[in-house]
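Researcher: Batch entry, complex prediction.
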Amino acid sequence: MFGTTARCQVGWLGRDDEIVLQRRVFPGGEVMELSKDTLSLFGGPAWLLAKRVEAFEAAMALGVPEDSNELWRYSPIANLDIASYSPIEPDDSLGLTDSDTLHSPAFETFVNTLRTSVGGSSNVIVCSNGRVVSPYSNLDGENGYDGEGTSVSIATLSSSPDSFEGMPWSDQEYGSDQYPDYFAALNPALLNDALLIEVSPGSEVPQPLLVVHVIDQPFSLVFDRVFLHLGKGAKAAVVEVAYSPPGVDSLLVPVTEVGLDEGASLSYVSIQELGEACTQIGYQVSRLAKDAHLFSLSAAFGGGYTRVRTDCTLEGDGASSKLLAVYFATGEQVMDFRTLQRHRAPRTNSDLLFKGAVAGSSRSVYTGLIHMQKGSSGSEAFQTNRNLVLSEGAHADSVPNLEIEENDVKCSHASAVGPVDEEQRYYLETRGIPPEKADRLIVLGFFDDALDRVPIQGVSQDLRQVVHEKFARYSSIAEASNHGLLEQPER
Amino acid sequence: MLKISRLRAGLPHRMILDGIDLAIAPGEVHVVMGPNGSGKSTLAHVMMGKSDYLVHEGSISLDGNELISLPTWQRAQAGLFLAMQDPIEVPGVTTAAAIAAALLSRGVAASDLPVLLEEERIKVGLGKEFLDRSLNVDLSGGERKRNETVQLAVIKPKYAILDEIDSGLDVDALSLISRRIEHATQEWNLGVLAITHYKRLLNELKVDGVHVMVKGRIVESGGPELAAALDRSGYSEYLD
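Model: Structure tokens for the complex:
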């Protein structure tokens, strides 16, 4: 396949002190600069091209982040060799229709398990390497691309681009560049497709919608973008999953934009089960109008270096959000979470709970900010990050922060990093439970404490299973290593 | 027989138990009373093998088997149980799951566990919902003690150390819990070492021995009448 299809590679070269995004086309060795003039290659109507150029310029202005930047502190961004990844060309049909991964038994089992977990919903939307596969009909012979009546409408950027014009592509909130950072700006500049899920006002979607992102093109730079928009009083649940086969070394830059109109309520779960060679730099952005409610859980298990930035803005009076995450890193994994709880309106409430475990020589990073802006009086915000450090070689950083510009607000933050609690272990031991079993109970319980709060039936059980399996794998490795059966990983 | 001999133990650099001798036969109830700081809770944790404490001298044996060198869980499996004064919160681990793990760890099939749990929680007046809640999380003092008693009754140890099982309990709860324990001394010959400040625990619990502990030593032993005397006059005569 490699010989017949054009592949391009992005490189960052320093030239005249400028970062130049370069495009090389194989085969043939033709080198072409990827610049605002060549962005039209990525297609779309005039407004989109303008958006691409604007975003591209913002990316160039922002520059590749450095770990001296507070929001990238503790991250291994300096080790990321961006030049080894290529954006997928618009005319590249690779992975679109005949992807081996989509038809692999492993993937079908994966998706069907998830579908069963969310209640057998037929609303499965698959995005393959940044493009919405439409329709995708290989799951139990059903059409997986079914909006189920008129209350939900699903559109793709490639087929009906004009539905996307009014979507929040950028935000003044991030200053004159309108994007939080380089990767967030590259997303609209270079994406091939996007998904829009809209729920009409007043309607309730009975079954959770399932969006599966598959990345299986090696060395590719994949941009996913999903807009979830719930009209006034609408109610829905969405589960988004990122999956890549083991060994696929790609860079995924997914952006999910949630917009909730007055009184709307969304339960949202994102599950990251990427293969360990994959890198992810992701964004979850939400804006809540008056009395809207968001439940969000981000579950991270896979990937090499994976990052999620969560920005939740409570824009309307009485809006509320629960922001949860569970993460479990083993081996050499690095998991990185940045959160922003932005309160702009009175009587808003946000409650954040991020819980993770690190084992082996893995690392996790959490930095978060509660920002009580002018006009947020009567609001409450909570921020809790708890980390279990299961091995001596593992490490977790946790930095919670508050910025308060309004009176009459209530904020609290807490963070903890430490091994399994000795008192908890002792308590279980006094019941006759051996320490290894006690630790297993405590670690799984630590996650259950968050997973039990997921309002989407079946999903918490599914995630619990993933945690159990990962813990079992980790324990057997740790045990083998304790008995000298495995060589210690090189540091 | 649970036998403690010449036990000297404490924290690093601080001796707390200064030569304890105590013997409890199956089915017997012994009460250890004493002022705050006399080392009663330390005795409970040293018996259980908590790693914070160092044993300098002496022996703790259960049916002739020395426990001192065993880790906590093996002492528990040998037949010892500690109902804690302040039971620890374990988020995400339910009472039912912990008891199931405790039985499975002993190789006991837990097939009739739901029935047992239901019977036992009713006996001590613990709400059904607590069995499926995280251990001790958001439980009142009284609920925690009921919960400890349910665990004790299902696990059925040979000997139970009750560290102030009566603190934080109202009269009704105290009555249910002490009755359950009294019944256990007959049902499976449970031996009990109860640490308490109050005589009221003895109302429903038939006591075989009362021991006064002061500054890490048992300074006086007697029958129930000793508890009554302490209740009237306190520990002042032992403290100087």
